[in-house]
UniProtKB/TrEMBL annotation:
GO biological process assignments: secondary metabolite biosynthetic process
Annotated binding of heme, by residue: 308
Main location as per UniProt: membrane
Compartments, record wording: Membrane
Gene Ontology CC terms: membrane
Name this polypeptide is given: Cytochrome P450
Organism: Coptis chinensis
One Pfam family hit: p450
Cofactor: heme
UniProt family annotation: Belongs to the cytochrome P450 family.
Keyword list, A-Z: Heme, Iron, Membrane, Metal-binding, Monooxygenase, Oxidoreductase, Transmembrane, Transmembrane helix
């Protein structure tokens, strides 16, 4: 633990994963998330920014949709999305057998993805990928009214917002979703909508995926290792709102707690001398055995009651997408790629992730 001041805020950086878990597991309202500034609220005004009773209510409402069993039923919908993407890439590679892509292709706003994210009320994945250029400017001018000034970036953001809303309104599923949101009906309704999506047409591809025997466990391992080296959220901030005992020390109210996820994910003390290397095999026996002394030092989805509600969803979707894509294409970094991870709310490649895609 190291203690210092940021401006007028007494701040504690927590470097011990056990203490980090303690902070994130607080159920007594002693430790909370800091209030968000209005620009961040624009990006994400759903569950992740709620506190107290409102959070408890909404989390309870959404939780059933995030359980593994429920999500399994959504595989046809995931598959359809992947097939659409593969078809698009096949067209691009058709003439030369390869093409160069930049990041963001996967996050092009497919109706399915829109409905997923809206369902959980986390529009940030889409919005961050599209708005990333506007954020540094916004954070420079940390003024509540800045977002209303009709700058080029603000206009782009407003248009994107309109586009997303109108896409949702146009599609049948979208209409149902909006209805669902307005009336707060059961989450099962939403899953029903997603399940209907192309159930029959994608069954053949599901069978195909099974017979080609992709080493799905290895795909998992790869995803974990990527999330260890490049966790989308590099740190979490909390603050004590009451006197709080943490480990051996008692903190007064008003102490800012910084949880440096990225730093812990790269710490040799927990991951060994090869902490900087990309070595998916370290997860071959699961998360708890991946780090030294079986201490869990892996927090890409956070921990405790506010753990990412979309983690199963994200992992299933990513696993399936990767397994399917690798059956049709191989990847190679483009010579124009420059490795420069950068944080604009989430960790992302500053100059893009130019990749050469080869049709198999
Ligand atoms: C690799 C992908 C993802 C990662 C690494 C990730 C990570 C995280 C993290 C670290 C948090 C805690 C944020 C905080 O407390 O400030 C969080 C919260 C959340 N995530 Fe994710 N997430 C991912 C994908 C998703 C997806 C696909 C969804 C929805 C379908 C989702 C929905 C949410 C929600 C609703 C919360 C707020 C939970 C709460 O406050 O109770 N996430 N996520």
């Amino acid at each position: 633990m190291s203690f210092f001041w940021i401006g007028t805020k007494p701040t504690l950086i927590i470097l011990d994963p056990e203490l980090m878990k303690e902070v994130l597991s607080d159920k007594h309202g002693r430790i909370q998330k800091p209030p968000r500034n209005p620009h961040i609220k624009l990006l994400s005004n759903g569950l992740s920014s709620l506190q107290g009773e409102k959070w408890v209510k909404q989390r309870k409402l959404i939780s059933p949709a995030s359980h593994q069993e429920k999500l399994k039923g959504m595989t046809p919908a995931f598959l359809t999305s992947c097939i659409e993407l593969i078809e698009k890439w096949k067209k691009k590679t058709y003439s030369q057998g390869y093409c160069e892509l930049d990041r963001g292709m996967i996050f092009k706003t497919s109706p399915l993805m829109l409905s997923h994210l809206t369902a959980f009320e986390v529009p940030q994945t889409i919005k961050v990928s599209n708005w990333s250029n506007s954020i540094p400017t916004a954070s420079l001018f940390n003024l509540t009214s800045y977002r209303f000034i009709p700058t080029k970036e603000n206009k782009r953001r407003m248009n994107l917002d309109k586009e997303i809303s109108s896409k949702l309104k146009r599609s049948d599923r979208g209409e149902k979703l909006l209805h669902w949101k307005v009336e707060s009906r059961s989450v099962d309704d939403l899953l029903g909508i997603l399940l209907q999506y192309s159930r029959e047409s994608s069954q053949a591809d599901m069978n195909n995926l099974k017979t080609t025997g992709m080493p799905i466990d290895q795909v998992t391992m790869i995803l974990y290792e990527v999330l260890r080296l490049y966790p989308p959220l590099v740190q979490q901030i909390r603050y004590t709102c009451k006197t709080t005992k943490l480990g051996d020390i008692t903190l007064p109210a008003g102490v800012q707690l910084i949880l440096p996820i990225l730093l812990i994910h790269h710490d040799r003390e927990f991951w060994g001398d090869d902490a900087e290397d990309f070595r998916p095999e370290r997860f071959s026996e699961g998360i708890s055995k991946a780090s030294k002394d079986q201490k869990v030092a892996f927090f890409p989805f956070q921990w405790g009651p506010r753990i990412c509600i979309g983690q199963n969803f994200a992992m299933i979707e990513a696993k399936m997408a990767l397994a399917m894509i690798l059956q049709h294409f191989s990847f190679q970094l483009s010579p124009s790629y420059a490795h420069a991870p950068n944080t604009i709310i989430t960790l992302q490649p500053q100059h893009g992730a130019q990749t050469i895609l080869h049709a198999q």
